[in-house]
């Protein structure tokens, strides 16, 4: 990453460019995915991450390439931020053979061995124990890697969340659990599902560090997750981070507006805290980036996403014989 002069916020031009372009890439990628869903080129479920980009980008910016990330089904942003090729991610959404999972997983099952992105899991809460297992493996092998595990607040009332917290704390595992609290699990507001809606406080029960962070502020996320990663790497201490965020779209493309369980006013009010607009404005005000820089980033991102769509379109469907490959089966 290019190093430029430090601005008042302590962020240099190279880092600012990286953070902004990653967030804009995820936003543009998903807008295009929504368009292609409407055109019938993407089937099945499609859960957009629009509004939450600062969490994936802030967190991934403090990871090393050999660290791991694992996520639930709203994972396009986490996968792209970990470094996956947008062309192969789009091809997976299209169900094509050049997709990350050879077109057999689709939107909810992105997986990329080359970037240590371990999915893409559709069952709410199921990947939290998997993250603990990966962290146990890291410790067992004596490595200094970490794993970041993203999930929604809908997983918190589940047993798997508490079992994972308990084992991570007990065995001192290098895992950072990042709960993206976007306030609704499908149509259920967090206050109706959790006796303790301040999710970071569950860390106290397990005697590990817990912190809430403004999930619309990419630099705040970077700072909090950066501290957690350092603790995990150095001291094998797990952390629970609650990133307070908001999804601007519905739960999935089947609920495009998300307007039944929340008011239009609420959505419009939250959009005023768009993480991309906030960060871009901050960079311009502080002089870290110029208007010309932002325009150039926009152009690069648009080109990259157009290229991803063209690549996905040109890729063939997986052949029928592949139905029986990459699966567990009797010999
Ligand atoms: C074990 C399980 N129960 C129910 C579902 C159906 N379901 C899919 S998404 C979802 C809501 C989860 O919300 P949250 O964890 O807050 O994540 P978000 O969608 O807000 O990102 C539910 C209940 C599921 N996939 N798995």
Written account of the structure:
This protein has 331 residues and is an alpha/beta fold. It has one domain (13-312): Thiamin diphosphate (ThDP)-binding fold, Pyr/PP domains (Rossmann fold, 3-Layer(aba) Sandwich), CATH 3.40.50.970. Helices cover 44% and strands 11% of the residues. The structure holds thiamine diphosphate. Thiamine diphosphate (TPP) is lined by residues 74, 122-124, 152-155, 182, 184-186, 251.
What is the gyration radius calculated from CA atoms?
19 Å
Number of domain modules: 1
Instruction: Give the overall silhouette.
Output: globular
**Percentage of β-strand residues:** 5-15%
Helix fraction, binned, reads 40-55%
CATH architecture: 3-Layer(aba) Sandwich
CATH class: Alpha Beta
Which structural class should the secondary elements be placed in? alpha/beta
The tally of beta strands, per DSSP, is 8
Q: Could you say what the CATH topology is called?
A: Rossmann fold
Helix/strand order, N-terminal first? HHEHHEHEHEEEHHEHEHHH
Number of helices: 12
Associated small molecules:
thiamine diphosphate
Which strand order spans the largest sheet, edge to edge or round the barrel?
Answer: 2-1-3-4-8-7
Keywords for this structure?
331 residues; alpha/beta; Rossmann fold; 6-stranded parallel β-sheet; two-stranded antiparallel ribbon; binds thiamine diphosphate
